[in-house]
Amino acid sequence: MRDENGKLDSKRGFLCGLGAGVAEAVFVVCPMETVKVKFIHDQTSANPKYRGFFHGVREIIRTQGLKGTYQGLTATVLKQGSNQAIRFYVMTSLRNWYKGDNPNKTINPLLTGLFGAVAGAASVFGNTPLDVIKTRMQGLEAHKYKSTMDCAVKIMKHEGPMAFYKGTVPRLGRVCMDVAIVFIIYEEVVKVLNKVWKTD
């Protein structure tokens, strides 16, 4: 995805993030998030059905089939795809801005962390509405919604536009730290690997 000079521009960073987000949504995030959300809702109900993780997964698959672990797939793909696309776009833009015309200019890990936190904040504000829809689509009351669009329309109609930003503040704190740490570790690992496999 890099150009002939080895530089990753913002548009390509966006596409890389989008591809990574869609892949993680389909193969990992959707089944794990669906099970997690169902467990949380079940454990807070008056009569919990699940007696532990494995029993819960077995019950979900027994009663709803494998598709029971993939509820809200469309919303999850939209959420994760936009999530990573925004993060990679912002991070790539900030890195390229800082490096300017010198692609070999090193970035201090603290600055990488700051850029990562900004990228995380941008992703929170950019896709919290999709996160809210995804969570509703995966919960125990998901049967109320015919589709992702139906869920969005019902939230808007019955709760208003601010309902799409429920949980923004706690998510902002967690995501900014999370993304900052991930990008710091990523950059430091890349530096080590470049030294180990450097070819002249």
UniProtKB/TrEMBL annotation:
Q: Does the keyword Acyltransferase apply?
A: no
Keywords, sorted A to Z = Antiport, Membrane, Mitochondrion, Mitochondrion inner membrane, Repeat, Transmembrane, Transmembrane helix, Transport
Q: Name one GO biological process term.
A: neuromuscular junction development
**The name this protein goes by in its record:** Tricarboxylate transport protein B, mitochondrial isoform X2
Which organism is this protein's natural source? Lates calcarifer (Barramundi)
Q: Name one GO cellular component term.
A: mitochondrial inner membrane
Gene giving rise to this polypeptide = slc25a1b
GO molecular function terms noted in the UniProt entry: antiporter activity; citrate secondary active transmembrane transporter activity
The family line of this record is: Belongs to the mitochondrial carrier (TC 2.A.29) family.
Query: What membrane topology term does the record carry?
Result: Multi-pass membrane protein
Q: InterPro entries of this UniProt entry? A: MCP_dom_sf, MCP_transmembrane, TXTP-like
Catalysed reaction, written as an equation: trans-aconitate(in) + citrate(out) = trans-aconitate(out) + citrate(in); D-threo-isocitrate(in) + citrate(out) = D-threo-isocitrate(out) + citrate(in); cis-aconitate(in) + citrate(out) = cis-aconitate(out) + citrate(in); maleate(in) + citrate(out) = maleate(out) + citrate(in)
* Keyword Iron-sulfur attached: no
| Summary of the function given for this chain in its UniProt record | Mitochondrial electroneutral antiporter that exports citrate from the mitochondria into the cytosol in exchange for malate. Also able to mediate the exchange of citrate for isocitrate, phosphoenolpyruvate, cis-aconitate and to a lesser extent trans-aconitate, maleate and succinate. In the cytoplasm, citrate plays important roles in fatty acid and sterol synthesis, regulation of glycolysis, protein acetylation, and other physiopathological processes.
Q: Where in the cell is it found?
A: Mitochondrion inner membrane
